[in-house]
């Protein structure tokens, strides 16, 4: 007779999570972020307390932020380890929606465990309950359905026997991977059930990824052999598929140059002769020049969003081969689809191609353009700062990188929104997979500091450097205090351009007047805009901090920050008006068709011209 263990639903859930292991014998779940409320403190709180040594619980200050931290933890582990997040039933649950959307877009695993209303309905409506006048089964947690890859509401303790294995499969499947929500009604959390003891036995979880079909590989090889000017676009799936070695071998063996998406940057060393740098709207001159001429694009592990394709203008002339574990992504842009794990597909394709190499002039041109771009990066990031001018983003990035000459391989840079991801994709140099941690699938302001915390928890031996604008910092900075509390040291480099400089430039590029982006252009009361001392603010959260006047002082401050044992913020004033002109590509942002402003009408005419060019190119 099978033995049973009588546990509450919350106790069973936590015990099951604690029993899951990676193939290397590590805990699959690195811990649980929790902000307790009446909807989870009694059930989940008691269960987590009992397992606090084997499944650590981390307290945060904001539910969205702690979910960002959990997502970053999984990203830093290339999806092989992850975290869970638990909240109460109302605002705590709805605060998870933005983070869930971020994880959904970026194909990253996170387990969301929000409390829910009473299944019994006895105290209906309970505190924080969102009532639907037409459906009594709806709660605040239903907002998470569109942004979850798997959603379940646990209305009886026995339901965990099927829901939890399904959740783990989604979280560890390359094609399905994304956020999982298990809504936990607070009375069900406390209900007991006799669970099979075998349900809680330690088990190794395999990360599932499909092998390529032989016919798909044959068709892809035929298309590549017919190409004269092939280009490989490396996406996040290369990193998540642990395929960096396969990518390097494939590129070198067949002479095919490589361009990187935001998520795929770092898969190939920045100074590799065939690494052209970033591609697309925020890409390098080298990558975009070859993409614009390529007759075949091998898109590996990328979802081909508009920043990668230049709003579908960059390589419309090319035959696209899409290698992706998810068929939805592999088929984009009318691609010849290879539904498969990146490593397995590249190895199989290379074997089929045998000794075939692309034309020597194409490879030689790639080498030449890559060398030229690296020289441009060196020039841009080492330009002397002019007297009486504020530095721009490129100057700051250069100073940060110069401070890491001795430890560059150890650095992880974290960023998410504004101009900085564009300049970082162009200019940041990394030779280590995972050394570039930029969330740009959702471009979520507020991810940066929370993401750095999660990254540091995942990679405590690495120096984690957040480069962030003042706008994102003001939007969400509370987990800087959490990093101090946990002893998870991060370095924050804050660029203060006094507003939303990136969107201010975009606004004017579309013909608009400067309005409501830079603080100087916002409506203000009689006292005017406040002066914000970011260093003082960081110190109030427990971090060490200082403000510097120029990039020379920034380099020196970075040495102090590196030597610090606790989180350290360095702020510097920057110019909101000067972008990095090198690199880049057109990005479609719709301009008003009718306006009283001449600048808008001129921008609209240019926009319509670009649409005509794209349409003509697509038809060709």
Q: Could you please describe the fold and organization of this structure?
A:
The chain is built from 24 helices and 22 strands. It has 620 residues and is of the alpha/beta class. It has a six-stranded parallel sheet, sandwiched between helices. Strand 21, helix 23 and strand 22 form a beta-alpha-beta unit. It folds into three domains: 4-204, Thiamin diphosphate (ThDP)-binding fold, Pyr/PP domains (Rossmann fold); 214-373, TPP-binding domain (Rossmann fold), CATH 3.40.50.1220; 383-573, Thiamin diphosphate (ThDP)-binding fold, Pyr/PP domains (Rossmann fold, 3-Layer(aba) Sandwich), CATH 3.40.50.970.
Instruction: State the end-to-end distance.
Output: 71 Å
Average pLDDT works out at 96
Computed structural class: alpha/beta
Number of helices: 24
Number of strands: 22
Could you name the CATH homologous superfamily of the largest domain?
Answer: Thiamin diphosphate (ThDP)-binding fold, Pyr/PP domains
Question: What coarse outline follows from CA principal-axis ratios?
Answer: globular
Strand order of the largest sheet: 4-3-5-6-8-7
Number of domains: 3
Under CATH, the topology of the largest domain can be stated as Rossmann fold
Please bin the fraction of helical residues.
Answer: 25-40%
| CATH architectural type of the largest domain | 3-Layer(aba) Sandwich
Task: Write down the Rg.
Answer: 25 Å
Q: Can you tell me the residue ranges where pLDDT is under 50 for at least 5 consecutive residues?
A: none
Estimate what percentage of residues fall within beta strands: 15-25%
Q: Could you give a short account of the major beta sheet?
A: 6 strands, parallel
């Amino acid at each position: 007779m099978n033995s049973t263990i009588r546990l509450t639903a919350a106790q069973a859930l936590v015990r099951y999570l604690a029993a899951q292991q990676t193939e290397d014998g590590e805990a699959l779940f690195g811990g649980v972020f929790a902000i307790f409320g009446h909807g989870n403190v009694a059930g989940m709180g008691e269960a987590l307390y009992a397992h606090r040594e084997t499944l650590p619980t981390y307290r945060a200050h904001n539910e969205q932020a702690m979910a960002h931290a959990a997502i970053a933890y999984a990203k830093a582990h290339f999806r092989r380890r992850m975290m869970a997040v638990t909240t109460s039933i109302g605002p705590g649950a709805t605060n998870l929606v933005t983070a869930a959307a971020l994880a959904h877009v970026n194909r990253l695993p996170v387990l969301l465990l929000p409390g829910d209303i009473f299944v019994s309905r006895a105290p209906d409506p309970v505190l924080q309950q969102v009532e639907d006048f037409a459906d009594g089964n709806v709660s605040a947690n239903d907002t998470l359905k569109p942004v979850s890859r798997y959603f379940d509401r646990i209305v009886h303790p026995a339901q965990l026997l099927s829901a939890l294995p399904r959740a783990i499969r989604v979280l560890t499947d390359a094609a399905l991977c994304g956020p999982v929500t298990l809504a936990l009604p607070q009375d069900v959390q406390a209900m007991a059930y006799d669970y099979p003891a075998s349900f809680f036995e330690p088990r190794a979880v395999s990360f599932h990824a499909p092998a390529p079909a032989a016919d798909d590989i044959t068709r892809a090889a035929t298309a590549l052999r017919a190409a004269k000017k092939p280009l490989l676009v490396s996406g996040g799936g290369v990193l998540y598929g642990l395929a960096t070695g396969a990518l390097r071998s494939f590129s070198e063996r067949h002479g095919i140059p490589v361009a990187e998406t935001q998520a795929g940057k770092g898969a190939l060393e920045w100074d590799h002769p065939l690494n052209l740098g970033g591609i697309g709207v925020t890409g390098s001159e080298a990558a975009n020049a070859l993409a614009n001429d390529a007759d075949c694009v091998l898109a590996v592990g990328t979802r081909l969003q508009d920043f990668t394709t230049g709003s579908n203008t960059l390589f419309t002339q090319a035959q696209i081969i899409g290698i992706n574990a998810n068929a939805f992504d592999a088929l984009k842009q009318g691609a010849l689809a290879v539904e498969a794990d990146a490593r397995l597909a590249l190895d199989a394709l290379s074997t089929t191609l045998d000794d075939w190499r692309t034309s020597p002039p194409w490879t030689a041109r790639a080498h030449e353009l890559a060398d030229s771009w690296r020289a441009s990066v060196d020039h841009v990031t080492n330009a002397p700062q002019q007297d009486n001018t504020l530095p721009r983003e490129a100057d700051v990035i250069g100073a940060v990188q110069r401070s890491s000459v001795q430890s560059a391989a150890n650095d992880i840079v974290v960023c998410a929104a504004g101009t900085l991801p564009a300049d970082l994709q162009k200019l940041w140099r990394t030779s280590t997979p995972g050394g570039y941690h930029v969330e740009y699938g959702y471009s979520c302001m507020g991810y940066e500091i929370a993401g750095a915390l999660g990254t540091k928890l995942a990679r405590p031996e690495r120096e984690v450097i957040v480069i962030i604008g003042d706008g994102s910092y003001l939007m969400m900075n509370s987990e800087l205090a959490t990093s101090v509390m946990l002893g998870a040291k991060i370095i924050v480099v804050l660029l203060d351009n006094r507003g939303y400089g990136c969107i201010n430039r975009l606004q004017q590029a579309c013909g608009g007047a400067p309005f409501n982006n830079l603080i100087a252009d916002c409506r203000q009361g009689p006292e005017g805009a406040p002066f914000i001392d970011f260093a003082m603010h960081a110190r109030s959260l427990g971090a060490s901090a200082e403000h510097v006047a120029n990039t020379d002082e920034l380099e020196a401050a970075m040495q102090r920050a590196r030597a610090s044992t606790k989180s350290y913020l360095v702020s510097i004033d920057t110019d909101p008006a000067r972008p990095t002109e090198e690199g880049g590509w057109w990005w479609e942002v719709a301009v008003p068709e009718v306006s009283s402003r001449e600048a808008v009408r001129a921008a609209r005419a240019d926009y319509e011209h670009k649409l005509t060019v794209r349409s003509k190119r697509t038809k060709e």
